[in-house]
Automatic annotation (TrEMBL):
The keyword Hydrolase applies. It comes from the Eukaryota. InterPro entries: Inosine/uridine_hydrolase_dom, IUNH, Ribo_hydro-like. GO terms for biological process: purine nucleoside catabolic process. GO terms for cellular component: cytosol. The lineage of its organism: Eukaryota, Fungi, Dikarya, Ascomycota, Pezizomycotina. This is Related to inosine-uridine preferring nucleoside hydrolase. Keywords: Glycosidase, Hydrolase. One of its GO terms (molecular function) is purine nucleosidase activity. Belongs to the IUNH family. Residues 6-349 form the Inosine/uridine-preferring nucleoside hydrolase domain.
Length: 398
């Protein structure tokens, strides 16, 4: 079977580099056409620096595997496009900038917990001019890069380009950061955006507490207005203009939090690779080492929740994971304490007399009407806890 064509929208990010490594190591299942970068864990320029570092590491890893007679892999050559450096409507709605200055943030000042200061030679190429529209057109800087093609267009334009030039309903878009770039594409040209086969978003806390506020998960909180744009594409009333119902799916905290990697699993798995000098294992060891230290400081245990990698895993294992479909989930865009909440009606229906069902109040059309969204959420993978950690590492290295 031909691999699934995907666009990954990302804010690398510790769990993003694990997710991207997992996607790149499985080209027989996933063909990464485009990576678009978003604000989120850090600003978009640092996200780009981290992505280029990962590409450099993968280039060296390819050579290492060849020399050590390990699985040879063609990591592909996706387009990379720079995206939004702030939410659609509000400046720094998530306050991550202040957060970083106070105590470095969960992903550290550089987004990868200081990997650039510990491994300063990660990036050998001056990559930045290639993303400048003027420079690129003058010098054709794109040719200097062997494993990615820099785009001089902004992310949302490049997303629409890919959707326009591929057959309709052949590309799955995966967001493992805030949804700003995707929403900008959807607002600019909804009909072209609707050519996507599916939009899968790591985000939301549907029946559980948030991880950024009591009610909100980070990616949705970082740009709730953008998430709302995407969710609203699933309303029945939109289907006529979009030539069919949009398929939007969430991989929420409800399920990602149970998919973890422990320090012990990482150490056992990576020991041999590190002693042989695997560039990818050494890179991830540096990134994860600090991350596990932070987890111990925060929670007392060296266990890392694999939100983004699990989202890619769900695509790789699309036949075994279980989805719950048709849920009316909406995004709180105005709340003072609930901004970014993924609101889901848990009230259920009341049976007044046998066979006669109603709900007590229905402000907002939760029971029926044009406002209803129809979102799928990932329910179960049959590989949770540390079993997932093993599967993740096998997926990245084997
Ligand atoms: Ca992310």
């Amino acid at each position: 079977m031909a691999p699934e064509k995907i666009i990954i929208d990302s804010d690398p990010g510790v769990d993003d580099v694990l997710a991207l490594s997992l996607a790149f190591n499985n080209p027989e299942k996933l063909e990464v056409l485009l990576i678009t970068l978003s604000h989120g864990n850090v600003g978009v320029e640092l996200c780009l620096k981290n992505l280029v570092a990962l590409f450099s590491v993968l280039e060296n890893e390819r050579e290492f595997r060849r020399q050590n007679e390990l699985k040879e892999v063609d990591f592909g050559k996706p387009v990379v496009a720079l995206g939004a450096n702030k939410p659609m409507l509000k400046e720094h709605a998530h306050g991550e900038v202040d957060f970083i200055e106070e105590w470095e943030g969960f992903h550290g000042v550089d987004g990868l917990n200081g990997v650039h200061s510990r491994l300063p030679d990660l990036i050998q190429t001056d990559y930045r001019p290639a993303f400048d529209p003027v420079t690129t057109s003058l010098s054709n800087g794109a040719s200097a890069f062997s494993n990615f093609t820099p785009s001089a267009s902004p992310a949302h334009v490049e997303i629409l380009n890919q959707l326009r030039t591929n057959d309709p309903k052949t590309i799955t878009i995966v967001a493992i950061g805030p949804c700003t770039n995707l929403a900008m594409a959807a607002l600019e040209d909804p009909e072209t955006f609707a050519r996507a086969k599916r939009v899968v978003i790591m985000g939301g806390a549907v029946r559980v507490s948030g991880n950024q506020t009591p009610r909100a998960e980070f990616n949705i909180y970082a740009d709730p207005d953008a998430a709302a744009v995407l969710f609203n594409l699933t309303q029945k009333a939109r289907a006529a203009t979009l030539r069919g119902q949009m398929d939007v799916a969430l991989v929420p905290l409800d399920v990602t939090s149970n998919h973890t990697l422990t320090r012990n699993t990482w150490r056992e798995f990576s020991m041999d690779l590190i002693s042989k000098g695997s560039p990818l294992a050494l890179f991830l060891d540096s990134v994860l080492g600090k991350t596990f230290e932070k987890m111990v400081a925060l929670t007392g245990t060296a266990i890392f929740g694999c939100h983004d990698p699990f989202t890619i895993y769900a695509l790789l294992e699309s036949k075994t994971v279980e989805w719950e479909t048709g849920l009316d989930i909406r995004v709180e865009t105005n709340g003072i304490w609930t901004r970014g909440e993924t609101v889901f009606d848990t009230r259920g229906v009341v049976e007044l007399t046998p066979g006669q069902k109603t709900i007590i109040r229905d402000n907002g059309g939760w029971f029926s009407g044009d406002l209803k969204n129809s979102i799928s959420i990932l329910k179960d993978s049959k590989a949770d806890g540390d079993a997932f950690g093993h599967k993740l590492l096998e997926g990245i290295f084997l």
